[in-house]
Amino acid sequence: MLLVETETPIKTTLNTWISAPWTEFVAIADAPDSDKRKSYYYNHQMRFEDMSTGSDHAKVHMIIIMAVGLFAAMQGIPINGHDGCSYRKTGKTEFQPDASYYIGDNADAIAWGTRIIDLDIYPLPDLVIEISDTTFNDDLGTKRLQYEELGIKEYWIVNVQTMKIYAFAIAPDGGSHHIRQSLVLSGLKLEILEQALERSRQANQSAVTAWLMQQYGNTVS
C-alpha cells in the first residue's frame, strides 16, 4: 500500500485553518483514514474537523434532514439531499457540509455513482447546512465567506446549543443577507424548524414529525 507523507501532521490541523498548498491538502483529505474527518480548503488554507459523534449533534442533524425532506415532499418540491458529501473545485476549494441539497431544476443534477462532486463538472448545491455544536464561530465566519464567494444560493447554520438557525441568502455577486424564511424552499419558515428542534429535546422524532406535518399543513398553502 502506498503511504502518502505530508509536511503537516494531521493532529496539528484539526479545527484550525492553516496555510497549505492544494497538493498537501488533497494528500491528507484523500488518505485512507480520511473518512472520519470533514475537509475544507479555501483561500489557500486547509481545515479538517473530526466527524461529530455526540448525541445532541446527531439528533439535531436528523431532525433537520427529516424536516427539510418532509416539507419538500408535502409541497411537491423536487429535491435531492446529500449527507456529509464532499464538493471539490480542483486547485481552488473544497467543502464538506453536514447537509446539502439540490433543489428544483437541479434536483437530479448529480449522476449516480459520483463520489466527490467535481464542481468543474457539476453545479453548486442550492442549499448548504452546517450543524454547529463546537464550530459555530468558524461556521459563521470563514465558512460563510467561502460559501458567499462560491455563490451558493442559501446557507444555514444550526446552533446545537441554542437551537437557533442563522440563515443567509447569497446573491450572485457574493453578497448575503439574513433571512427568516427560505427562498430556495419557498414558504418554509425557519421559526417552525427552531420550534421543532426545541420539541426534540423532550419529544421523540415520531412526535416531532407529526407536529411538523400539522404545522406545514396549517401555514403553507
TrEMBL record:
<keyword id="KW-0540">Nuclease</keyword>
<dbReference type="GO" id="GO:0004519">
    <property type="term" value="F:endonuclease activity"/>
</dbReference>
<feature type="domain" description="Putative restriction endonuclease">
    <location>
        <begin position="24"/>
        <end position="198"/>
    </location>
</feature>
<keyword id="KW-0255">Endonuclease</keyword>
<protein>
    <submittedName>
        <fullName>Uma2 family endonuclease</fullName>
    </submittedName>
</protein>
<dbReference type="InterPro" id="IPR011335">
    <property type="entry name" value="Restrct_endonuc-II-like"/>
</dbReference>
<dbReference type="InterPro" id="IPR008538">
    <property type="entry name" value="Uma2"/>
</dbReference>
<dbReference type="InterPro" id="IPR012296">
    <property type="entry name" value="Nuclease_put_TT1808"/>
</dbReference>
<keyword id="KW-0378">Hydrolase</keyword>
<dbReference type="Pfam" id="PF05685">
    <property type="entry name" value="Uma2"/>
</dbReference>
